[in-house]
Amino acid sequence: MTIDNEKLLTERLTPAQRAIIDMEYPRFSDREMDRRRALIDGWLAEHDLDHVLVYGAYWAGNGVGFFTGWPVTAEAAVVFSPGATPAMYVQFYNHVPEATHIAYQTEVGPGGESTIGTAIATMEQRGKPNPRVGIIGPLPMGAYRALEARTSEVVDLNRAYGGARMIKSEEEFDWLKIGAVLSDLSYEAVLRNTRLGDNERALGDHVERAYLPWGATNLIHFFGVTSMANPDCCVPRQWPLTRKVANGDVGFTEISADFWDYSGQILRTFTIGADPTPLYQDLHATADATFDAIMAILKPGTTAQDIFDASSVIEDAGFSIYDDLVHGYGGGYLPPVLGCKSRPAGPIPDLTLAPGMCMVVQPNVITTDQKAGVQTGEAVRITETGVESLHDVPRGLHRIDPS
């Protein structure tokens, strides 16, 4: 059956969201970018800083994209100084032209022999020697030592940055919705295209073909496929196996299509050529009940402890979990990161939900011997009055009848 993904995008996205996909380079509004730059100004003043350095390398360090619009490739360092245009230095040299075109109100140049060295030289040209510098991003030890040697103090702003990312703007939710819809298309492609004899690598191929035409890239597509009669996998794997899909299997997946640093996250379970066995019916019914129990209480004012307490459904059914049960999302793996009574994820944070937060609810219910498991869930947003999903794929234990 041929599926018209263009039609699905039109149905599932607003006209404004759909138009973002078709932009030459998808961009946030000036108003949104200025809101982000105001965060930098606030930290400069609050910590009496001379500069803020935002760093990323090899597709890690989303602060660069958040403050400039340029997703990090090989390496990028951005210098923010009071009263000066931000300066960004990128590796490699051939990345400079496109970064120059994309970056919002930023002077762009090559990093040269040392990107951090070039950034430090800019700081020295702009102000006093031995400045106070705030850093955001995964600065490696060598770069940190070089910066430390030329400053009076280095202030870690990563916690402040992470806190700022917890509350999203409406524009950010537009982009998260795009990532969610493209993630949905990917999962639907797995349901539609999986064939007997496919391995988990082929399932990943089905995933990526669904979103590549719309400008998205892979963040994750994890799969766990195993025999329902003799299971050996309770949580999706990060690296695909070459084991072939067969009738009587069960599979579960965690998919995030990344649209310019904004992604959804859909988690679902499916059987192959057979109805679920009683064990898998029980596992999935418990996962569904856990998801429902958590969604029923998600609203402004709900605490992390409230969410943790709602997970008791799992132990009451005689099961446990492996993956985290809930985590904040959008701009990082954010608080609250929660497990359950039988598999805690560390201390329960003193955190209360507020409008504008984004979370993933993802009960990965497993047997206590860790041989069998299922997973369901998706990214959701906290609204002024409650919670709403960013995804459109119906929940449930799906069945594939491949040829």
Characterise this structure.
By secondary structure, this protein is of the alpha+beta class. The protein folds into 2 domains: 30-165, Creatine Amidinohydrolase, Chain A, domain 1; 170-400, Creatine Amidinohydrolase (Alpha-Beta Complex). The chain contains 13 helices and 18 strands. It has helices spanning 5-12, 15-21, 30-46, 63-68, 96-102, 115-126, 141-149, 158-165, 170-193, 200-211, 278-295, 304-310, 312-316; strands spanning 51-57, 75-80, 87-91, 107-110, 132-136, 153-156, 217-227, 249-259, 262-263, 266-272, 320-321, 326-328, 334-338, 358-361, 365-366, 377-382, 387-389, 397-400.
Flag low-confidence runs. none
Helical content (DSSP H or I, runs of 4+): 25-40%
What percent of residues are in strands?
A: 15-25%
User: CATH homologous superfamily of the largest domain?
Assistant: Creatinase/methionine aminopeptidase superfamily
Q: What's the overall geometry? A: globular
Q: Number of helix segments? A: 13
Mean pLDDT: 96
The number of distinct β-strands equals 18
Q: Please state the second-level CATH architecture of the largest domain.
A: Alpha-Beta Complex
Would you state the CATH class of the largest domain? Alpha Beta
Helix- and strand-based class?
Answer: alpha+beta
Rg, rounded, reads 23 Å
Distance between the termini: 13 Å
Keywords:
10-stranded mixed sheet; Creatine Amidinohydrolase; alpha+beta; globular; about 400 residues; 2 domains; Creatine Amidinohydrolase, Chain A, domain 1
Characterize this entry briefly:
35% of the residues lie in helices and 23% in strands.
